[in-house]
Structure formats: structure tokens, C-alpha cells
Amino acid sequence: MTNNDVLRSVRYMLDLSDAQIVKILALAESQVEEAEVHSFLKKDDDPAFRACPDVIMGYFLNGLIFQRRGKSEDAPAPSIERKMTNNIMMKKLRVAFDLKTTDIIDILKQVDFAVGPAEIGAIFRKPGHKNYRECGDQILRNFLKGLTKRVRPAVS
Fold this sequence. Notes:
Layout (H helix, E strand, L loop, with lengths): L2 H12 L3 H10 L6 H8 L12 H16 L16 H11 L4 H10 L6 H7 L13 H15 L5
Helix pairs in contact: 1-8, 2-3, 2-4, 4-5, 6-8
């Protein structure tokens, strides 16, 4: 999935305005203008559309973690990846929403997407690990859809 797709999905899920997204980015010490955020949220075929860079997506997901869980002065801030992958986005969303493997399996079941604990565990492994598995677009898309149902049950 593209960064823009994930950003749009999280925006809808949490009912965020462009200004709120700017504030979330600021929590992770990133300065992005509201107009720029607006261009990230446009449809792909809109002339004003702009692809969301991996670094901005990293700042957004870290800011989301800080907004939802609080910023700990004791723990170091999560790193900002230069290259975002579906696995990294899943990890950061897992932390932001304080989810365990069983929660993720339940979320995916809600949208009729059956996945076992071993498969979920493989997604959260380090890339060099022998059991590491890349998170496909289908898993991330269904995870976001199920998470939206959980967070915003009346709407979805």
C-alpha cells in the first residue's frame, strides 16, 4: 500500500482534520504545512495530489504513537525509517493502538481474513530472521479495515 493510502485510512479511522494531522506530525518534531498534508490526502488522479514521502509517513506514525500512548522521556523515540514498508507500518500501528498478536488476529477475523499467529509473528520479525515474512498489501489493507471497524464501529 502507498503511504497516501495508509494516511487516508488512518485519517478516516480517527476522524482527523488536516490540522490535527499537522499536530500529530509536530509531536514527532516534523514541520509540515497543512496545505502539504491536504495534497497528500487527495485522490491519486487529482492534479494537486502529491505522494507522501516515507520520512513524513514515519514521522506521522511516530506522532500517532506519542498522541495515543504518550511520549516517554525515559524511552528513546522510535526511529524514523528512510524506507517505509508494510511491515514497519504494521509495527508502528500495533504500538500506537497497543495491540497484541491475538488482537491483530481478531481484527483480521472481523473482516473475514483468517491469519494464524505464526504468520502475524513472522511479519513482526527483523528482516534478516529466517522466519521473517513481508507483509502484503492485502494483510495491511484488511488490518486497517478491521481496525477502523474496531475504532469507529458505528460508521463502518
